[in-house]
Amino acid sequence: MPHASLYHWFGAITLSLAACGPGGGDDDAGSGSGGSDDGATEPTGGFDGVIVTREDMFIPAAGEPVVEPLDPLDGEAMTILVGDQTFMSELDGAGQRSFAGVPEAPYLLRVDYPSVLPGAPPVQRFTATALRVLDFGASVSGRPDVAFGDATLVLDVDGMQPLTVFDSFELHSYGADAWALISTFDGEGAPLEGETALSGWALPWTDAIVLTNRAGVPLIDPGKGDAPRLAHLAGTKLVPGLPDLQDPWSYATVSRVVESAALTMPPMTAGGTAQATGSFDPVAMKSVALDLRLGAFFAELTKFAASSSADCSVSIYIEPGVEAPVIGITPSLTSLNVPFDVPIDLTCLPDELGECNLDVCPDGCEDVRAPVAPADRVVELSYGNPYGVGTESLSVVCNAYLTVSHPEADTEELLTVNMFVNRRLADVSGPLVPTLTAPGDLRVNGEPAPASAVTTVGLTPTISFTAPALGAPDDYTITVRTLEDVVDAGGEILSSRRTVATLRTADTTLQIPAGILEEGAYYYFQVNAGVGSELGSPRRAYTHATAGARTATGIVTP
């Protein structure tokens, strides 16, 4: 799986911060970085107001970087709010927007991003600051002139190690900033278990499998240096043999790149079909010993509430930046996944075929699980690096989930908290433990909003919290998550538990603006502390040593 070059998307896939837009954090991860009121200068020329600039530097795999001034507005609208006043911007040529007349006082910069869901309102991203200049520029991996569109990709690649049911494939192009996770047995002409070649495997090159930070699905053009590469990842259990069923390490799995193929293919065209050919070559392996203290992460996460489920992933990946992280989708080298959920009672546990011994369990069998903190463990991870650009990096991402019931729909909902640390692999030494903990004493309108209750908060509640007990965050991101479903005309659920707004701030108290919460709806708030960038230049990382930690409220309603 790809990993964030700065911001982490906690879940199955990881994105760089560009996917968030310059206005704030992403949908299900804390900022992963942050900023005090640093990183910007005062307006020049006597301008009375706020200036937002954007100049992106695109870094190709070969050749000189290309600098392009771009409109800082990459959504539907950008406004500044001061009390009940709203200030509109003017585009001052390429790369700058100006807000005239904004008083020298704290304000909210609001950027609206269109929802991908039909009928859903825009996602609102706020930055709370008093800065007079904001820099939304960034360094970006790949070339600037990428074309977009859907296509069909046909893979013909030989020399493959025999395929197993635990394997997967990743296709990565640095130049086009494109990455695709390809499930082993999906699509027309998909390979079968045991086969040693991909022959005529037709895949839809769409956003269903392609991840990117660009404005659409990138079309790969090898003639422009995109250099697509297909990696074969082999999956295995970390602990072979019969496991201890109540030890989380018994369920740990490893997926690593074992071979890769440089692909030869014509340029992709929108609506067209591109045949990619090549041969797999084994990847030279290295190894690293990691002293994993995952129980320390679990202990921090469960301060929110006794979780229903929890897990951690440890990944070695390629960050496209060298001096510091840059915006770009990055390929995985090795990932270790450790689910913490184990059976509570082994007496009446179904067997591997799902069958139950009724002589022992006349009332039937049930696989009821709960998370357990894993013991400290030194894990030797092997990895190979077939890529020629970037920095070998390490990430630890841990999540905890609490299952609650929607007060009216009676549906099962998940409240999520999480934390992560990122490092250059070369900088890793000693135990891997949290370097930043979540904000404490989270309150809404001065009162706790516990996970065990539904709290009435009004339409514009005030969120307050204390600084983390461990670490010094650059800033905080408050995320407003709705528990209301978006449905189509036929009543089919298109989305649930989605982000409706984020608010990034250096303060530990902030009021939710009007227009976010709706009467009769149910939400929960997440608060993330982050290290890695400054509030005045949110898309520019200053360190590879990024971290984030998030806590949450229980269900709230206006």
Features of the shown structure:
single chain, 558 residues, 4-stranded mixed beta sheet, 1% helix, globular, disordered N terminus
Could you describe the 3D structure shown?
The chain is mainly β and 558 residues long. The protein folds into two domains: 49-137; 151-557, no CATH class. The protein has one helix and 43 strands. The strands form ten sheets. The protein has an 18-stranded mixed sheet that branches. The longest helix has 8 residues, at 294-301. The chain starts with 48 loop residues before the first strand and ends with a strand. Residues 1-39 have low confidence and may be disordered.
SSE layout:
Blueprint: E1 49-53, E2 55-59, E3 66-69, E4 77-82, E5 85-88, E6 90-91, E7 96-100, E8 107-113, E9 123-129, E10 133-135, E11 139-141, E12 151-158, E13 168-173, E14 178-183, E15 198-205, E16 210-211, E17 229-237, E18 253-262, E19 273-279, E20 281-282, E21 285-292, H1 294-301, E22 309-319, E23 332-339, E24 341-343, E25 369-371, E26 377-384, E27 391-405, E28 412-424, E29 431-432, E30 440-444, E31 447-448, E32 454-456, E33 462-466, E34 475-482, E35 486-487, E36 493-495, E37 499-505, E38 509-511, E39 523-531, E40 533-534, E41 537-541, E42 547-552, E43 555-557
Parallel strand pairs: 1-10, 2-11, 9-37, 12-19, 21-29, 32-43
Antiparallel strand pairs: 1-7, 2-3, 4-5, 4-8, 6-7, 8-9, 12-15, 13-14, 13-17, 14-16, 17-18, 18-20, 18-23, 21-26, 22-23, 22-27, 24-25, 27-28, 28-42, 30-31, 30-33, 33-38, 34-37, 34-39, 35-36, 39-42, 40-41
